Structure formats: C-alpha cells, structure tokens
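Q:
Got a chain?
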Amino acid sequence: MLLPDSVLAAIIAGTATLSASLLQLRSALLREAAAARSGAGATRRKKRLQLIILLVIVATAGVSGFALSQWLTNGERAAQGVMQRELQARVAEIARTASQLELTRGSERAEIENGVLRRIGADGVVMTATVAACRPPLLPGATTPPGAATETASAAAVCTEADASPVTLCATIPGNATVTEVALFSRAADSQAAWSASRFLPGQESGQARFAEKYSEGAPEAGVRQVCQGFAHWSDHARAVRIIVRYSLQV
C-alpha cells in the first residue's frame, strides 16, 4: 500500500527526533556522571531536569510511533475490507450472470425441443407392421391321407373374422399433445401400391381386414403417452399395416 507524502514526512521527522533525543540523552548521561564525580550540586539538578525532559520526549516519541503504527494497521485493514467487499460483489455478479445464462440456455433448449415436437406432430408418427396370413382351423373329422399335402385336408376350412388374431399398433406422442388425426392404411405384404391408395376408414372392412372403429389413448407417463389402433386380418395372404398419428402441442 502506498503511503501519502504527509505520512512519510511524519515518519521521517519522528525518526529524526527520536534519534536526536537518544543522542542528547546519552550526552546528558555522560555529563551527569562527570558532574557527580566533581560534586557540583546545582549542575546535577540542572542536568537532572534535562534528563527528565529527554525522557518525556522519548516517551512521547514512542507513543506517537505506536499511534502511527495503529493508524497504518487500521488503514490496511480498511483497505483489505474494501477489497474483500469488492471481490464478493464481483463473485455475486458472476454467479448472477451464470444463472441468467443457464436460464437462457434452458429456455432456448425447451423452445427448440418444442419446435421439433411440433414438426413431428405435423408430419405424424408412423408405425408399420406385417401381419402373417390367417391359418384356417381343421374341420372336425378331417384326416390327411398318406402322402397327401396338408393343404388338401384343410381345403374345406376357411378363415373367418372370428378366427382372426387381432394386432395393436401404438405410437408414442408427448403427454401434453392433442391428437388431431389417426390415418389408417393396409395392403398386401407383396404389393407395390402406394400407401395413399391403401387407406382405410375406422371400422371399414376391405380385403378380409378391418381396423377398429376407435383408437385408444393411454395415460401420460414420464411425459409421454401412447395412441393405439387395433387391426384384425383373416385373409390367407400376409398384409402390411400402417398408422400415422398426427398431433398438436398445447401452448
């Protein structure tokens, strides 16, 4: 810490005064000893008075030096306190800035995620499956002759809707989303027709296949929920099935 010029001057003056006082004290002591040997009483009293004055000067210089040191120490403590408060203020400001940046990044991330989810909802969540051909049950009493194909024994048996094994297709959407459309499609597994030409309506039967009349929604769990659509198929040919679930997000 740099000291003001006035303080430096006071220190120098005090040091000079103390040094001069010590020298005078030494001289006085020497003269007092000489006077004592010579027996001069008046001179001894005069020298004793000078000695007392020098002792007072030395004591005053000591007290002044102590006071000056205390003043300097208090000044250093005050300066350290100011620096500590400034440092704490800087740390608090940095913490506030970091918190604001974290909140800004969190809001931007949430906004980006919502934008992606909205785009997915507009395009639709697609689920596709392939359903195997229905296997008709054997007629009661039907037997397979030796060497005959199995298909011959079951040729009289035909799958009906009651024999169909229903499947369920489920799409996962955000828990706060609102379903706007569930599009249904089905075609033969080996067909190359466009999906748009193979659209079904809920409950419509076509090609020995039928979608359920209504879709079902599960309860939200971990921020998402499922939208499911049932499908029944009793054809002797495998079929490909697709659903597209479109949704919108609540603001």
